[in-house]
Design a protein that fits this description.
Blueprint (H helix, E strand, L loop, with lengths): L13 E5 L3 H12 L5 E2 L20 E5 L2 E6 L18 E4 L3 H13 L8 E3 L4 E7 L5 E7 L2
């Protein structure tokens, strides 16, 4: 019997991260990406109906680059933090163009006062990575092809 896929994905459409403070997270990702969000309803965060409105992305915002979208959804309770050991997201890895770009990113993160790991080769995966945490302690990784 030949197995047929239920779907044949072409890639990811979007990823949305749940955050505690939309203004803090928006500022962090704006600095990280060097651009503001393309869709942004964070100015309506005090509207009591916003958290139930998917058309206004629950008061969040989203960044679009190279056909993919990273959204921020501000519905987590204040004081909540990310836990990679629970069901769900372990980390989000963002691909960059080169190892040199990773090294430059490490320098710029240090200049901005953002704590990060070392640029690390992972030969078994064919990657070089740089790890950091967002304001809600979500594990982020910048990755480039090794070689």
């Amino acid at each position: 019997m030949t197995a047929y896929p239920i779907v044949s994905p072409l890639g990811y459409s979007h990823v949305r991260l749940t955050v505690t403070d939309i203004h803090r997270s928006k500022a962090f990702y704006t600095a990280l990406f060097g651009m503001g969000p393309g869709s942004d309803f964070s100015d309506q965060i005090d509207d009591p109906t916003i958290h139930d409105d998917p058309a206004r992305t629950y008061g969040g915002c989203s960044f679009r680059f190279h056909g993919q979208t990273l959204g921020l959804r501000p519905v987590a309770p204040v004081g909540d933090t990310f836990d990679p050991n629970r069901v769900g997201l372990d980390h989000l890895s963002l691909r960059v163009g080169s190892v040199d770009e990773l090294r430059s990113a490490a320098e710029r993160l240090s200049e901005a006062g953002v704590v990060h790991g070392e640029v690390t080769e992972l030969p078994a995966f064919g990657l070089v990575i740089l790890s950091l945490q967002d304001p809600d302690d979500i594990n982020l990784e910048l990755a480039a092809a090794l070689g």
